[in-house]
Structure to design on (214 residues):
């Protein structure tokens, strides 16, 4: 479908912008979006997504700080610049049709964990009751692997690593980028918030285990 033929539903866009701004304010209050970092998006329909404009303070977002992109990450109906990482959001929407929200934050816990576990290429979570907060996991006896991909400013390279993980058939509910932060997603904003908060807690537990273990 050509970009010119894409039609934006203004009511749907306003609802999504309000939801993104509300979540962003709360996550910023947690200290998870320092120095204008992080980006958030919601699927508008099969062809379009609403996403934060690059460089905006995530604690002060309003409707004018949200723009529309197509599923190739290209701006639609706006001259604003989306995040350089927009392709990672639209990749989630393309690969996971059930996903309607993507949240990417830069908390201290996420950033430290990504550096510590980058050499392993993943963080293996097992035995934690809160793993059940991730959709599809029903017991602490499950194993939840969160991949840690090398950081790069070349987004196609990073997108290819994510595609390779998915194509291998391994479950993927979130991933970390080394020295960067976390990406996670869900069917709606409450589910995605739950995933993000659970993963933040679980990563903190793993860091504490490393710190306290003899």
């Amino acid at each position: 479908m050509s970009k010119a033929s894409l039609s934006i539903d203004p009511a749907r866009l306003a609802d999504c912008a309000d939801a993104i701004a509300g979540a962003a304010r709360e996550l910023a209050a947690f200290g998870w979006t320092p120095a204008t970092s992080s980006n958030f998006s919601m699927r508008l329909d099969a062809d379009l997504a609403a996403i934060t404009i690059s460089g905006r303070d995530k604690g002060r977002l309003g409707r004018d700080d949200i723009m529309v992109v197509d599923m190739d990450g290209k701006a639609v109906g706006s001259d604003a610049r989306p995040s350089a990482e927009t392709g990672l959001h639209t990749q989630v929407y393309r690969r996971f049709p059930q996903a309607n929200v993507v949240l990417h934050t830069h908390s201290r816990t996420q950033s430290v964990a990504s550096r510590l576990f980058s050499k392993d290429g993943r963080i293996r979570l097992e035995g934690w009751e809160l793993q059940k907060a991730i959709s599809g996991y029903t017991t602490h006896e499950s194993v939840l692997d969160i991949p840690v991909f090398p950081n790069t400013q070349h987004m196609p390279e990073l997108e290819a690593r994510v595609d390779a993980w998915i194509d291998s058939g391994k479950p993927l509910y979130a991933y970390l980028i080394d020295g960067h932060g976390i990406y996670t997603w869900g069917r709606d904003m409450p589910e995605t918030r739950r995933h993000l908060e659970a993963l933040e807690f679980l990563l903190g537990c793993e860091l504490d285990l490393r710190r306290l273990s003899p």
